[in-house]
Amino acid sequence: MNFTAAQTGVGSSVAPCRRGRVNWTSAQAPPLPGHLHHARNECVDTPASGQRSGVNAQRGTDVRKPGALHVARAVPAGAQEERRASPRPSPPSALGPLAILALDVEFTHLELASSTSNKEQLARPGRSRRALSVATWVCVVDRFGTVPPPLKSYIGLPPDLRTEPCDNADKENGGSGGVVGEARYRVVGGVKEGALRGAPCLAEVRQQVLSLLREGGCKTLVGHGISKDLQSLGINEEADLWAHGVRTCDTMSFPKFQGRGGLSKTLAVLAKEFLGRQIQACRGAHDPEEDARAAMDLYVRHVDYECMVEYETRRLLSRAAAVAAAAEAAQHAGADGGGARGDGHDGDGDAEAEEK
């Protein structure tokens, strides 16, 4: 890319150039190739023949609109026609109610205690116990806040863990317990075991989630730590989602939501900072619906532009409707009060006339 004297501040602030060449004012350094910049009447682009036309004929330039977004590089011939012919992505409102979904999974945390015979399979080297987290509660919400959500279900424990309670000695150590062959487990946190009785198995819930995403026309799946949640459900991002046109957005890795040094923040911190909302206030297991709605609102308001426009439009329309309803109610109340006062004055006048 060649730059004229306008780059160094010598001569006029804006100099004409041939097609595919960008000139910059003396107050602005030349951009790196491929970087995006906002033009402020400093980018000029004239025909190769040097013809001058329009309001800028005296300057010999064809200045773009102020604030126009452009790329500081040569534009190949026919690129504009190809760009016009390529289909633009449809706004979320044109894609259907399930175009954007948010998913969250909650877990039941178990502690496995193994005996010497199966220590190699269940215990880490040098330890007699190990922790295990199992997905036991999933929720999928849409961007409209539909109640009830499209999908919310408990997930039963795996068959090898779904056993009868163990002996009294194990109950004294932690309460609910079970026997896995020669190994014992107990619930140490997360979703309570009592809520999982009669819940469908993981394979059934996984199929429900995939059917909702594929058949519902989902294009974007949002979540906080979405890869971990999908992996816990046995869903492969590339094979099960990307191959079917469903992309994922993780609010944990979005730069705007990260702290210093790219450190991720918890969903509760993001909800408080960007939404002014307090979530996960109760100790113990979190409600996946609450977390999924928080992740969805973060995406709608701060990540996706089309969703943000749609959200703000709906919010302004609802606020205008509320203001109009309040004004109408006040007008009716004033009319009723005025009528009552008018009737009272008429009654006083009649009483005075009778006294006279």
UniProtKB/TrEMBL annotation:
Alphabetically ordered keywords of this record: Hydrolase, Nuclease, rRNA processing
GO biological process per UniProt: rRNA processing
MF-aspect GO terms: exonuclease activity; nucleic acid binding
Gene3D superfamilies cross-referenced by the UniProt entry: Ribonuclease H-like superfamily/Ribonuclease H
SUPFAM superfamilies: Ribonuclease H-like
Lineage: superkingdom: Eukaryota
Keyword hit for Nucleotide-binding: no
UniProt key word Transcription regulation: no
Gene Ontology CC: nucleus
PANTHER family assigned: RNA EXONUCLEASE 4, RNA EXONUCLEASE REXO1 / RECO3 FAMILY MEMBER-RELATED
Function description: Exoribonuclease involved in ribosome biosynthesis. Involved in the processing of ITS1, the internal transcribed spacer localized between the 18S and 5.8S rRNAs.
Stated name of the protein: Exonuclease domain-containing protein
Organism of provenance: Chlamydomonas incerta
